[in-house]
Every structure is written in structure tokens, then in C-alpha cells.
Amino acid sequence: MQRLIGAHTSIAGGLQNALYEGKRLGCTAVQIFTASPRQWQPTSVSTEQVAKLQQARRETGIECVVSHAAYLINLASPDADTRRKAYAAYLAELQRCAALGIRYAVVHMGSHPDFDTGMQTLIESLRQLLAEVPDGVCIAMETMAGQGNALCYRFEHFAQIYDALPDERLVICADSCHLFAAGYDLRTPETYEATWAAFDRLIGLSRLQVWHLNDSKKPLGSRVDRHEHIGEGELGLGAFRLLLNDPRFTRLPMLIETPNEERFAEDLAKLWGMVNE
Ligand SMILES: [Zn+2]
Ligand SMILES: [Zn+2]
After folding, report:
1. Which of 116, 153, 206, 227 could lock onto 214 through a cystine, CB 3.0 to 4.6 A?
2. Buried residues in 257-275 as b, exposed as e (16+ CB within 10 A)
């Protein structure tokens, strides 16, 4: 079985370049933006872009491509106009993914000054999206660090979404840095197992389908989202060794988003070195 380990690589010069860059860095999977993340106007992909990405898949052997929606998309925004724009932008993301043969469109869960109202707003946005999501594409909800008014940083918050929307096209993208900042300790075998027991009880492990592997600059429970290079933060190599060799996760794409892309190759080499160690 081929392990899917990679990075969020740049689409400068064309989407296909993210795969060639990934190959150079030692990736077997990549995460990309399918359009400029600063651009809000919904855009579609051309047949030429689709063909170039398919060619890059064949030439690099990197079949697994994950998308990350623009960071600023807030499907829970209290402002109706902002929310409509966010909705249109994410729906366009899902449609680009369908055209490009991308299964997972990772999205942040948004924020709201009133947590409960925010969760209800988010659930309504997701309910509408599920009516429009194209075949073959999943909404990958990212576990958040809990910074500011952010929603969905505890497993209970996702359980609330699944109670309202028990739909298999809603899946989880777990971010190791965010989990740790939100108070889930992955450093010792005991706390690691307790975390997954809670996840399984509240959400269900089969719903976890994408990983972001990032170390954390900030301590456990800080609720501050600051990524660090693998093994150089508060999580340390031990947590990554547990995650990489956990049979529950070995089939899932694992992607780094560490701060300096010039060090991606080094981070990836560390991860590959810990596989089956
Ligand atoms: Zn993210
Ligand atoms: Zn983050």
C-alpha cells in the first residue's frame, strides 16, 4: 500500500505545477488551492487546466490531490452578504473539484461572535451546500484551533453538525496543530488513545478522511493557531510517530502546511523516516 504523504504546494504558473513541485519534494499526495485564495469571484476551471492536471498526475504518479478553500470563507458569518459571498465561493470550489477529479475540498468552519448562533448558521449553510455538492466531492471540515470566535474546535461541535446532518459527504480533516491547540494531547500513548476514543464516540473514526500534519508553536490548549516545522514545536516527533503508524490512519492523505516552504523537503523526509519505524 502506497502511503499518501505530502504538502500544500504552490500553483504559481498553473495548477499542474503543484504536482511537479510535490514530486520534487518527495510527496505522494498534494494539497492545492484550485484558484487564487485571495480571489472571491467564483471561477470555473478550463478544459485545458483539467487536461494539464491529468497529465501531471500521470507524469508524477501523484493521483491524490486535495483542495483547500480560501481561508477567509466564513459560512457562519453574521453578515448575510458576506455569508452569501462565502457560500458562492465555496460552492464554486466544490464545482472546480468535481471538474478536476478532486475528492476533498477542505474548508475552515468560520466564526461568529455568538457561538450557538454561529453553529446554527454554519449548519444551515452546510445543509444548503449538501443539496448542491456535485457527485464525487466531499466537504472536508477542518478541526479548528479555537482562536477568537472560531467554531468547531472540539469534537462535540462536529457531533452537533452530524446530529443535524448525518450525511457521508461531510467528512473531517484533522489538523494536528489545531487539535493540540484546542486541548487534545497527542504526545503520550495514553492521551493519544483517549483523544481517538473521544473522537470515535462523538464523531465516528470513519468520518476522519484527511490529515494536516503540522507541529504547534503554542502550548496545549492555547487555542492559538501557529504552525511549526515537524518535530520543532510543542507536539514533538513522538506525536507524529504515533499518527504516522496508526493503522486507523495509514490509508489517509497526510499533508504538511509548515511555515517555510523552503523546508518542506526536510519536514517530509522526517515524516517518511518515521513511517514503520
Ligand atoms: Zn486549513
Ligand atoms: Zn492552522
Report:
1. 227
2. bbeebeebeebbebbeebe
